Structures are given as structure tokens and as C-alpha cells.
UniProtKB/TrEMBL annotation, chains A, B, C, D:
Nucleotide-binding as UniProt keyword: no
Name of the molecule in the record: N-acetyl-gamma-glutamyl-phosphate reductase
GO cellular component: cytoplasm
Native source organism of the sequence: Celeribacter ethanolicus
Pathway the protein acts in: Amino-acid biosynthesis; L-arginine biosynthesis; N(2)-acetyl-L-ornithine from L-glutamate: step 3/4
Length: 342, 342, 342, 342
């Protein structure tokens, strides 16, 4: 017996990544793939690397019989997602990969996404999908809101430090080096090969990036007070991966201990020996997260570096990890594939 | 029950790729990893992307108890490989990834590799490891010689055409675009990032590349006469993959039919609809091969394009496919992972 | 005294490359830059790497006073170019970088570009801009049609061989490895960084590429009979450059002699010593062309490899070289900058 | 009349970059190129992109007649440089590109470079080569010590802020994204294409990078007290360029004013309008530096971003700028070439 899976919005990168991961998942079977503008096309026309698979053709969402679906992954754009999910049968389990249900407070949603939320009732019900920290709620959730990929990376390295009280909450700086697939398959000039090769630049600098909404919500909740961090993502010439560098004020040994302790039994999160730093390519294509802690020459200053693959641990891998829990499966099922190196 | 696997020469790229693929293979277990100069080191020190795995430390070959090993992959450099394999117990099944046992004729070996073969007796016994064409011999073989990665790509697109007699045997041109990992992890100036970015150049041009020994041997055997092709590999700024363009003289429809017919039931080789061409990234990280056939505007001229991942279908994936057969397992076991895209 | 230059269609890559090269040209001064959809914007908004320059703002073509312009570079899209150029004052010298005036025969134009030519009269007058071969006509021309970048590369390596009669005219195969900037700054999915990294694929395979119109016209003219070559361009993950591999049938020594002889006194075209092959990056950013000749192991077969930067020698550099001649300047003026390596 | 130039250590990337820039310099002529291990070779054998140039062959340093040399660029490795320079005729003007003469204090040199300085007397005499800040001393200097490329970038964005007193000196964090050519043409595993593609990682993290010696020396001197910054360089998959992100505590408007004011008349340093950020590729191949200032959402926090090409403004371009001053030439001579984009 396998669980029947639908992927809504399968024609984007996170959709393709879900297909890749589910292909070798022993307990999931894809029964429906939607792609509104591409309805009627075979998935192999959109993604020829899936040519060998026996997949359903892309269809419209309204053509899916949700009575036969155990769980739906929703990989639709922001705003579209809430409109679609509120029309789904209330019994369908959903893992949403958009930003629509990440923020608890409708006011915060409107602040960061520029318009009112249209499904406030189910927004309340959604569980934040950072698996390692919401495991129990996710197990019994109907709707899980996948995190932002930058937001996941930042939280993996900072949550245990805030929880343990080992860093100054008013002096947290997070500088990210991010690969281009986080922006999806969209046609934008700065995503062209000729523009990005030998290039690097910051964007949404100074507190404008929407994932700050997640950081504010989560960090403040852990700390029991308002926490505001500085966060700058930088686009680099790479396809997959996020390397997050956090500059914090706190003793390096306490920082390392807090992380090692928090993740001691986690299958996907690996804290390196003290003083070692991770490399982005070491987790590429996998659901792993590597974290390193290095002491600065200035006493009391510490650098914490974490890395994940944005399409796997940062979105589609995380989504399957959550779906495993929601379906009562082993959390790591189908997710232990090894990073692709080189 | 699982089969006990040793990897000799595990510190190179093909060794790391074997570890990646075996990690999710349901019937193989790695019991020994050798790396002479790195003996004593943990595999995770050499390849931190394997950090989460529970692997034996690197050891010297002489420290492996081959009585407990069901099959050894030999990923050693050319020449070293023959010296090592001739000292292994004659009952140990071996898949060799080097060039040492690919050529039947010791004279040809000496011609292409510049020194006499030192294990001529076992050279006789070795089976050429192009699975799709030597399946039966491989099943009962003790020693299988993995093919060259360029040689595999060229043969996938040309063997059925030579066998079917649909092309002119004296007018075959093979132009390859190859990624850099085919050269291994060796420290050479032209493999540096700064040298290869925005670069492309042919090498071993004009009939000097050693994989021609394999082409000559195999194509002549199929044709029943001497066949000599033109073959030029070109290094391009990419890490994994080979895109092979063959210019042949023969009717495109007959060419396409010969290929489609030959690979109709092959799980890993996919012939595209007539007129379509494959892209290198569509097979990256996988054991698949995509082949396309396009008719030229000049009557009687046809372009055949094939692509594989040099580290997977071109070496370590092929090796596991062969090992599956040698161990009586399903040929595709552990090899159906989906290409990583993007 | 300097010559007053207008660039029509300055917002594309060839426009930007013209600005880059003219910036250090001692006898040219940019007086007008057009960019219809971007009229009113500063060039530095479109191309911030030009920030330090004192350039006119982008304007509409109709706002340029051509009485004050000595020479106009026309870097507009195909079809637009002919519509614009036929309205320019007949005294304005023009170097067109589009495909509109490359083909002598209106029938051929319609065949390759899919619609009738709308400026047949001035099409007759245009001189084909492959400087090394049309030098005298260019000196006195009013309108010069810049060549296709692929067409330029192929002609540099093949014209002298056809002229010298040293190769079989019915057995010419041209395989190109081309960087992405040849496709311009257009928003197309296959030009995205995430799609092209670790990728390579042929396009317009089998005789469909429009530059074949130029090859057919020029090679047939030289040979005095119809010549049809096979031509396949392959996109590779690089930004600038074309590496052209020609497979020809003829004695390598005669081929090398024909090329060395043809280019002996050419400032930009360098024929390497016999047996050496060029690398794409060795000409990047410059107006140089490197050509190598290698003998195949099959007697009578020869590989000729040539490389240029598609944006420089393949379009904007060539355009300035032609403009120098049209203005009575030294042909190399402003074009001797050294390739950028690494 | 031109000045006669020798380049000692011409076979590295900075040597090649000096040749590239001097090639179009109207007042410099290369008369000698040394390369000890490659003595006797032509420069075009080491760097085929220089094939078209008429350059002296590589020689040994002792074979150079310094009586005929007006100025020597010394692009030798650290430690070698001091040994060579102390043997040069005391009348020869020298621009050193190594680290050997950057630090005033021999104790600091030993601390960062691990052994005592062997030319302490001429160390005293050397002028620090950050042109915009040592212009007058450089004009009359005999020996100028080129800065580290990371050190230059960091100083361009931070010096005016420290001088103007607009930021907290104890809260300066500098996160660099650096391209690979800064490491030179050395054969190291992490510099291989296959290792760096899709990768990113910090190195010399936590205060271990040698360029901190320069920051400490210069910033403390400006401030009149000890200043210690946090500095982490991150290698990214790119060939040329440094993008430096400084996190400072001070009013953004005051920060922007201090920078705009400091560089108002500088030909190579461009401060962007308030709120805009630079991109690394916008200065590639040129001697320009772009600087942007963005206000953070947290009051009193500011992000300053600067970018240069490490081989040009960060080393060889800076060296020529300094040589121009030392020879009484216009400071910008030969350095106004436009960045290469795309």
C-alpha cells in the first residue's frame, strides 16, 4: 500500500524536485500533477529529465479527484496558494510550499506581502513546517506551511542560540550567499547566465526581504520578547544552495555546545567539530544541513555558518519530511540520498 | 542479507560516486574502503559530503580481508589496477573502473597506454563492461572491465548503427563536449576554475585519445572489418556530463529506427522522438542515457546526439549495474534515482 | 577632431560592447544612443558598468540629428533594422549589426528569415562585413552588413581552404561550441543560469540555423559552384566566445599552409603552429581570432579549430574594424586591447 | 619617449594582468619579464592569449640589466619578494605586489607571515600603495607596497567612515565574497572547477586572514586608537572580483555622506546614489570601484557594499596607478578601459 500524492503547481522547480524525491520514496505514489497554464502537457515536455518516469499528465486543479488523494503538496505561487487551498476538501492533508501560511498574524502577512490574507481561518490552523522544531504539531496537522528557504537556513543556526540564551539578541547579523534556483524558473534579466556568471550582489538589503517576517515571528516567540535581526541575502553564480553566515555576540564554546546539543539526535542536521566550517556543495541535492562554529579573534564574537540545498532541505525535501510525519511514516523515508559531489 | 562490498581507490571521484550510489542500494553494504596515501583517514575528511554516513575508515589494500568481501570495485589509476587485481584472491568478483582490462589485445594496450600489460592472463578473462551489449557474459564473469566514459557514450550512439549496417563505416565523426570531472580530482592547471570558466578547447585531437582503442576494438568486432572513426573530445566549463555528437552518413529514419529498436527494452537508454535532441543536464547524476537523431539538410547525412553523466552511467553507475548482474540482482537495483535538475 | 558616432539600439549586448570599445578609441566620440523602449533612461541605468562614462541619454531614433553624425552603428533586431536604415539620410555611413543586409539574394533572405525584405534597393548596395575578405569594398561602402558571429568564425577557418582548393567541398562539417551572449539579453528559459549551468545541447541542428544562408552565399561564391556544409551549433555554459571545429577532408599540411598564407599579414587573425589547438578564453574580450590545424590519424582527414569572442570579433569589434576603414582610419585603431585572462 | 618597464614574476595572474594593462598604456614599454622556473620560455607559451604581442622572453632576474629599467613591478611570491628587492639597485623604482612591504612594523609582519622580515631597512622606506590615500607619498616614493586585494576593498568602504567618526569602531563586520583568481594560478584542490562549481565557503574565518594585518595597521592609524574588525572572506564560483559587505553601526545618511565626500573627485571610485547597491560584474576587468550604502530597518545600522576586480584595482591596476604617479604621469593613464560586461 502506498499513499496517493498530488502535486499542485508541478511545473516549477520545487514541483520538479518533489517528483525527483518521491520517485524513490517507497511509500508515496504520484497520482496527480497540476500545472494550469501547461495543463494537457506531459511532465517530460516541461522537464525532459523526467522522461523515464511514468507520470500523470499535467492537469487543471479542478480536474483532480481529491477523494483519491491522501496528501497534496501545493507548490503554487504566493497568493494563488491560499485561494486554492481554501477550496480543497477539508479532509485533504496539505503541505504548502508557498509563503501563504507561514505567518501567524494576518497583519504581518499583509505587511510583508502587500495585501490582506484571503483565508484567515485556515491560516490559524496551519502549522509552521520547520520540522525539527514543530515535529509534534506537524504529526497531527492537516495543513503544514513550508518555510522560506532562507528562513530555514537562518533558523537552523540561530534558534538554538536564542533558546539557550547564549547570544546577544540585539546584535545578530545574518549574511546569506544564495544560489539562483531559489528565485524559481522565472524569466528575469538578472537570472540570465550571461548576467550572473562572474557576478555577485546583495538584494532586498537592509531589512526588506520577506523571510524576515518568519525570523521576527519565530525568534520573538522563542525569546519571549521582540527580536529583530539584520539579514542580507547575496545572489552568487550557483544553481543550488544557501550558505548562511551569522555574526553573533556570545562565547563560541557556548554557541557550539548549544547547537551540538540541540541537534545531537537529528538525522539531517550535522554540527561540525568546533572550529570547522561547512561548504555549500557538501549538501547539494540532499536533505542535510551542515553547521560550523568558529571563534573570532575578538573575544565574545562568534561566527556560525550553516548550509542547505534550497530546493531540498529548504523546500521540497522539507515538505516530504513533513508529509512523512503527517502520514505516520518514518521521518527520513525517501530522504537519505547522498549529496551529489562533485 | 546484503552483499559485502569493498572499494579500492575510494578517494577519487569515481570512488565517491560509488559510495553515493551504494548508500541507497538495498542489497549492498560497504565493508572496506582503501586509499593508500590516505589510509587511516575517515572518508568524511576526504569527502565531507559523506559526513552523515557510517563508513569504514580508509585503509591499505593489504589490510582488507577479502574472504569477507563479495565484490570489489577497483577505482584505482591505470597500471596500478592491474598490479592490484592480479594479487586479489581469484574467487573475488571484481569490477574494475580503470582502463587496464578494456582492451583484449595486449599489443593494443601497449600501443595506447605506453607500456606492456603486466597481467595478461587475467586480461584474457575480463569481460568488457558495456552492460547493454555484454549482459550475458557479465552475469557469469569474475572480472568486468568498466568502459571509458567517452567510449561508453560513443558506443551507445554508434553500435546499433554499425550492427544494422545503416551508416557508412568510413565516414564517422564523433565530437564530444565533456565536463571536467572525467579528468578526476587531479591537480592540473587547465582544470582550475579560473582557467576553465568561459573556456572551451579540444584535447587529444586527431586520433590521440586512448578511448579510441575501445572504439577500434568494439566497432571492428561488430562490423567484421577494421573500423576507424574520427574522435575529438572538447573540455567545456561543466562538472558532470558528456554530450556526444556523431556525424554519420546514412538515412536518418533508418538511423533512428536502428537505435529505437536496439534500446526498446533498455531501462536506462532512452531514444527521443525523431528530430529531437537531448541536453546534457537532463541526465546529470543519474544512470540514464538520452539519444536523439536529427536529419541534416544534406540528403543522406544524419546527426546523432547522446548524453550521459560521466561519473554515473559513464563509470560508477555502470559499475554497479554490472555488479548487480554479477551478484544475481536486478540490473536496475539502486540505480533508478532521478537526474538532478536544475 | 573626432568622428561623431550614433549607436542605434544601444541597450542590447552588442550596443554595450560598442560603447566599451569606443570608450578607448582615439578618434570616435559617441553623440547619440537610441533605445526606443528605454528612451529617456541613462545608459548607466541599463548598464551600470558604464556608470563612470559621460554618455548621452538613450533617445528615440527620430530624435537624433543625423546631420551631425558621421557614422551610425545599427544594433537593432532583425527586420527592425531594415525599416530604420531605409529611412536614414542616404549620406549617413552605416554599419549594421543585424542580419538584414548580409544576404545578396532577396529570395535567400526570405527563405532564412521567413518574410520578404522591405528594403531591397539598399540591400543591393550593402557590402558584406567580413573585413579580412571585403576590405576594399568596405573602404568605399556607405552601408556595411556585419556578419553573423557563427558565420564569421566558420568563414575564418574555411574560406582560405575553399579558395585554395585543398579540401573536399562536399564533406565539410562544422561543429560550434557557443557561449550564451550570442543570444543577446533576451528572456528565454534556456538562457537562465540554473538551466545552463552543467548543461550543453545542440540547437538549430541539421541545417536550420540562419547563418547557413551566409555560408551558402559566401562559400559558393568562392568555389564557383554550390557548396553546402553541415553546421551544428551547441550552447555551452559560458558567456562569451565561439569555438568552431571543422572536420574536413584534405591534407593537413596543405590546410595549414593555406591558412597561414592567407592570414600572414592579418593583425587580428593568428594561425597557430601546426598541430596546436586554440582555446576559447584566449581571445575573450578581444578582436583576435586564433586558428589551429591538427592532422587526424586517418590519412587525408584534418581538424581545423578557430575561436573568436562573439561580441567582439563576432560583432561589435568587427563593426568598429569596418567603421575604421569607412572613415579612413587605421583598421586596428581602438581594437588592440588584450584578451582578458583569466 | 616611453618608460622602460620590467615585470619580475611575470608568469602569475598579476603578471599577466600587468602585461594586459601595459599593452595599451601610451607611456610604458615592457623591456624585461622574469619567471625563474620558466626562464627561456616565451610569454605566449605560458599565456597564449598574449600570442599577438611582441614581448621579451621570460628570463632570470639576474639577467636583467636594471640600468635600462625605469620601473620594476615585482609580482613575486611573499618572502621571495623581499629577498629580490633588497638586491635591486637602490635607484630602481619598484612597485611590489607581494605582501612583503605592506606592514610598517616588523613584529606585525612576523606575526602574520610566520617568519622575520629579511629586509627591515627597505621595509621602513616603503610607502603603502592605496593610491587614493597615499598619493603624495607615492609620488616621491622609490618603493611602493601594493595592498592586499581584500585589504583594498575593505579600506575603500571603511576608511572614510573611520576618518569621519560616523561609525562605532568596535562593531565593524566585514564579509567578503571573493572570486578565485585572488588565490593565483596555484594547483590546489579547492580551486578545481569541479570542486568550486555550485560551491561557496568561508576561509581564514575568525580573524586568521593575513590582510587583517593591513586593516589593523591602517584603521588604527586613522582612528588614533586600536581598531580591530571582524573579517570573513568567502570563496564563490567566480574568476574575478570581490564584493565586500560591511555591517556598521552609524547613521546611514552620515555614512553615505562621508563616502560621497571622500571620493567626490576620485576618477576610479564611484559612490552610488543612497540606497543602491553595486554588483561585482559591473567593475570586472577595470580599475573602478563601486560603493553603495543601504540603511537597515534597525535604526542606526547601515550596510556598506563595495566591489572591485581583485586583479585590476586590487593588484595590477592599482600597481600601474601607483607607477603612473611615481613616473610623473597622469594617474589614470592606461587605466580607463571599460569593465567587460557581460
Amino acid at each position: 500500500m502506498t499513499y496517493k500524492i498530488a502535486i499542485l503547481g508541478a511545473s516549477g522547480y520545487t514541483g520538479a524536485e518533489l517528483v525527483r524525491l518521491i520517485a524513490t520514496h517507497p511509500m508515496m505514489e504520484i497520482v496527480a500533477l497540476s500545472g494550469d497554464r501547461k495543463a494537457g502537457m506531459e511532465m517530460a515536455e516541461v522537464y525532459p529529465h523526467l522522461r523515464h518516469m511514468d507520470l500523470p499528465a499535467l492537469c487543471k486543479i479542478e480536474d483532480i479527484d481529491f477523494a483519491t488523494v491522501d496528501l497534496a503538496f501545493c507548490a503554487l505561487p504566493h497568493a494563488t496558494s491560499q485561494a486554492v487551498i481554501k477550496e480543497l476538501p477539508p479532509t485533504t492533508k496539505v503541505v504548502d510550499l508557498s509563503a501563504d501560511f507561514r505567518l501567524r498574524d494576518p497583519g504581518e502577512y499583509e505587511k510583508w506581502y502587500g495585501k490582506p490574507h484571503s483565508a484567515v481561518e485556515i491560516q490559524k490552523e496551519a502549522v509552521y513546517g520547520l520540522t525539527e522544531f514543530y515535529r509534534d504539531e506537524i504529526k497531527s496537522a492537516r495543513l503544514v506551511a513550508g518555510t522560506g528557504c532562507n528562513a530555514a537556513t537562518g533558523q537552523f543556526i540561530l534558534r538554538p542560540l536564542i533558546a539557550a540564551g547564549v547570544i546577544d539578541l540585539d546584535q545578530i547579523i545574518l549574511d546569506l550567499k544564495v544560489a539562483v534556483s531559489g528565485a524559481g524558473r522565472s524569466l528575469k534579466e538578472h537570472l540570465l547566465y550571461g548576467e550572473l556568471e562572474d557576478n555577485a550582489f546583495g538584494y532586498s538589503i537592509g531589512g526588506k526581504h520577506r523571510h524576515l517576517g518568519e525570523f521576527d515571528q519565530e525568534f520573538s516567540k522563542i525569546a519571549g520578547r521582540d527580536v529583530r535581526i539584520q539579514f542580507t541575502p547575496n545572489l552568487i553564480p550557483a544553481t543550488r544552495g544557501i550558505l548562511a553566515t551569522a555574526y553573533v555576540q556570545g562565547e563560541a564554546s557556548a554557541v557550539h555546545y548549544a547547537l551540538a546539543d540541540a541537534y545531537m539526535n537529528e538525522p539531517f542536521i550535522h554540527v561540525l567539530p568546533f572550529g570547522q566550517a561547512p561548504a555549500m556543495k557538501h549538501v547539494r541535492g540532499s536533505n542535510f544541513c551542515h553547521i560550523g562554529v568558529v571563534e573570532d579573534r575578538i573575544p565574545g564574537r562568534t561566527i556560525v555558518i550553516g548550509t542547505i540545498d534550497n530546493l531540498t532541505k529548504g523546500s521540497s525535501g522539507q515538505a516530504i519530511q513533513n508529509a512523512n510525519l503527517m502520514l505516520g511514516l518514518d521521518e527520513t523515508m525517501g530522504l537519505m540520498n547522498v549529496p551529489m559531489y562533485p
